[in-house]
């Protein structure tokens, strides 16, 4: 589904990613573990096209993703939950979720209905403005937005950071349920405390360099 081969990326001429190699097979969940500043978010942004790569390749579903304009990623079925959520405060919950569909000209609400079935709590405050929600609730909304767009690949950048334990557990339950949907998922964490039981493969990143770790796949 997704491969990164020998990817190098610099920001203001400072090397951030060095010869990154990563592979996510169709229908698998892959963990990306590293401390703050290790390069996790940069990997996500490179895949999304927010940051251009200096060299190497990013291929998605047999096409060169690194040559695809960033605004076309959602059209390919790639959903992204950024670390800082990036909700529009004065939009309703449902409007925030629908943004990616509006951007691609897709008016089909079937995906939205599926998300509400997956996370009934989101439907219950669909008409509330995003600014009125707690941080954990906003994470759920950001996940719902990513799911609406991410029919093929889901990128989750630190989904559990700053979330109360009960909501973190709920997020983990939703992510675990995605295994039955055959979605490919990349999930980053600063440690291995939440995702260990659901990942099929784990990469560690440190100072912009990546290595593969052993992982225990979920039953």
UniProtKB/TrEMBL annotation:
It comes from the Bacteria. Residues 2-219 form the ABC transporter domain. GO terms for biological process: L-amino acid transport. Keywords: Amino-acid transport, ATP-binding, Nucleotide-binding, Transport. The keyword Protein biosynthesis does not apply. GO terms for molecular function: ATP binding; ATP hydrolysis activity; branched-chain amino acid transmembrane transporter activity. Gene3D superfamilies: P-loop containing nucleotide triphosphate hydrolases. SUPFAM superfamilies: P-loop containing nucleoside triphosphate hydrolases (SSF52540). This is Branched-chain amino acid ABC transporter ATP-binding protein. PANTHER family: HIGH-AFFINITY BRANCHED-CHAIN AMINO ACID TRANSPORT ATP-BINDING PROTEIN LIVF. InterPro entries: AAA+_ATPase, ABC_transporter-like_ATP-bd, ABC_transporter-like_CS, BCAA_Transport_ATP-bd_LivF, P-loop_NTPase. Pfam families: ABC_tran (PF00005). Belongs to the ABC transporter superfamily. The keyword RNA-binding does not apply. SMART domains: AAA (SM00382). PROSITE patterns: ABC_TRANSPORTER_1, ABC_TRANSPORTER_2. The lineage of its organism: Bacteria, Pseudomonadati, Pseudomonadota, Alphaproteobacteria, Rhodobacterales.
